[in-house]
Write a structure and sequence with these properties.
By secondary structure, this protein is of the alpha+beta class. It has ten helices and eight strands. The two termini are 54 Å apart.
Amino acid sequence: MYDVSTRKRALALVAQGRSLNSVSKETGVSRAAIRSWQHRLEPLPRMAPPDPGPPADECAYAYLLGLYLGDGCISAHPRGTGYYLRIVCADAWPGLLNECREAITKVRPGIGVYTLQKQGCVAVTSYSPHWPTLFPQHGPGKKHERTIALEPWQQEIVDAHPWEFIRGLIHSDGCRITNWTTRLVAGERKRYEYPRYFFTNLSSDIIRLFTAALDHVGVEWRQANPRNISIARKASVALMDAHVGPKH
């Protein structure tokens, strides 16, 4: 590679009527390089790939958005050339890991997705210059320390695919468990088991997004404390089982 001043000097000598051979000998620059500079002094700028636009699959995006808000992050490449989307999935749920990879490839067909094994979990990772465009909630610091609000176009997708959004949030920061209690029946104490769903997140904004989606689909919920949402009513658990189900 030659600096701009060397190129300009070589081209100035050529402009004086000097032969490429003599200029090459004087400057130490190859004739082929000088010949190419005669047509173009500066290299063409490296163009960033065009923004591919909205998500290719809105249903998959609603699910991926839930995963991102729960256990995802976006970080810049050290050279500033793009961004990494990372969704952390526990080793205990290999089905979740596969669903996460599939969602990314549906949202951005043809994009590379790879996994990085860590202690007890796997980071599903994909590189693109455009992840912050798809996830404008990206920003410095932890999610619960900054405002999290959906853009109008994101809210339209969530309203159209609320169950996928709920699935993503449950698969990241939620669970389905079996509780039990005892009751006195005809003088005999009996044990009863019943399922319930929990969602836990430190961000009050993400809690509100989750409960708003639950309201949209008719699921009754209770806020156990500022960071925990409980779904225990039989009809609501049945709805969750039909559309979400336990992690796998």
